[in-house]
Amino acid sequence: MSDRLDELLSRLPVDQPAPDLTSRISAAVARRRNLRAVRRRMVMLALVCMVIGLMLIGVSWPAAAETIATTRGVDVASVSLEDILAAPVEVLVGLFELLLTWEANLVESLSHALILGVLLLTMSAFVWLAHLLQRPAPLNGYSQFT
């Protein structure tokens, strides 16, 4: 059996490797290392942003919770069905104005630290999600598409 295989192998033409094969392999290895380093840095940046965001939210949350509790909310229970049927436009305009006033008071009282903390936390969540959704490397380590 091995004689037959040796005979078939001897019939194959002997091709020389491409002259730039080693440089292409070296470039691919360097690209892969750089990509891994960039991904690692992005994950570390996301973790730092998450920690800073949680600290900012933790620091500013008591003041925001107090503001939310003391800000007068929309009293929707005082509006009855008869009021809506009797004067629907006036009631809806009044509710809309009340909602806008409540929202403006709430936004004015929120601290910049809370907003920045939520922004950093959201940004780190998106970076972490991108890291989770990336294509895994092949198990054998060889791929022309990575």
Q: What does this protein structure show overall?
A:
By secondary structure, this protein is mostly helical. It has one domain. About 75% of the residues lie in helices and about 0% in strands. It has five helices and no strands. The protein has helices at about 1-10, 20-70, 80-85, 90-110, 110-135. The longest helix has about 50 residues, at about 20-70. It is elongated, with a radius of gyration of 32 Å. The two termini are about 40 Å apart. The mean pLDDT is about 80.
Task: Annotate the secondary structure layout.
Elements: H1 2-11, H2 21-70, H3 81-86, H4 88-109, H5 112-133
Helix pairs in contact: 2-5
Summarize the structure.
The chain is mainly alpha-helical and 146 residues long.
